[in-house]
Each structure stands twice: as structure tokens, then as C-alpha cells.
């Protein structure tokens, strides 16, 4: 399948997914029209995701501004050659410095091509990323979804997606509790090969569900 690279490909995937699963169509009808939310692919795109992890938006933006002021092009080779003190001065933690260094070496020296990962299966693309020290499943999946536009990625470890699935499935879900990551991956099999679009719908549904007290939630067909 083509990557979700623009509004047209997103609309095409959305139409296919809604025709395939009436529940997705119900969520969209309830207002969960998914935005594109696409970022540039490549080293800088993944580096920005790593930088922002477990930080407030304001803190992440401040660190990113200092980092890109020091390295305007932010190429893998720049970070591979950078002194750790330079990176620490930007506000990066020791763990994130190690991860960015490992990623930079993988790209600059080991041949990891970040902007072509959408051409691989979801499983193979994720495997290529988590092989880099410090990159976990959530980081890999968020990069693949929002930077490469991979059409079949759903970050099942994301708590908002888990809660959205609970709300959407309603009384059909076990004890009406939030599914675990493993359980959500099983549920998401029904949305192959459009899991990237399903993830966007669930995030959109989460936002509107949390913003409307007592709203009528969709029930599976």
C-alpha cells in the first residue's frame, strides 16, 4: 500500500477502512474525522520524537530549539561526531544522548534508511528501528506512523488508544476495562492493512469522547 503522505491517500484509506469495519464508520460519524498529522521523515524527524519523550511540550520545544540552533541541518553525521557535552548543554538527558548517538551511527555508518521504512511490512520496519539501542516499540511506531506515513501501524502501547478502544467497544469489551497493549494488538488485526488510519480515528475519538460528558459512544456492529 502507498504511504499516507497527503490528505488524498488518507481519505482513500479512510473510505476503505469504513467500508471494511462498520465500527470505524460509526466513530467517524460521531465526529472522529482523523487529521493527517504528518511530520518530515528522516533523522531529524525521529530525533525530535526521541527528544520530546516524557517531557512537557514547552520543555521539549526549548531543548529542540537549542539543539537545532547548534546543529541547524541536524544530520546524523553531526550528532555522531558531536561531543556529549554539546548535547548535554542543549538539555538532553544522558539516556537520550546515548539513543541519539546510537541512531546517528546506525544512519551515518550502518545504512539505516529512515525515510524508506514505509516500504517494509509493519513488523520489519519496526524491527529495523528497535534494533537501535534505546529505541522502543512506541517510539518506532509513532515515527513510522507520523513521519513515514506507514499505512499499517497502530501504537498499541499508547494509553489514549487503549482508552479510545475501550470507549468505542463499550459493553462488548471484557469488564469494560481498558485493553492491554497485547489485547489491543489482537483487536487491531481486524483493521489490517489500514491500522494507521484506525489509529488516527481512535485518537480523534478519544479527544471528542473526553470532551463530551455523557456522550453516546459507538457500539460495535
UniProtKB/TrEMBL annotation:
Its EC number is 3.2.2.21. Residues 51-207 form the HhH-GPD domain. InterPro entries: Alkylbase_DNA_Glycosylase/TA, DNA_glycosylase, HhH-GPD_domain. It catalyses: Hydrolysis of alkylated DNA, releasing 3-methyladenine, 3-methylguanine, 7-methylguanine and 7-methyladenine. One of its GO terms (cellular component) is protein-DNA complex. GO terms for biological process: base-excision repair, AP site formation; DNA alkylation repair. Pfam families: HhH-GPD. It comes from the Bacteria. This is DNA-3-methyladenine glycosylase II. It comes from Chelatococcus asaccharovorans.
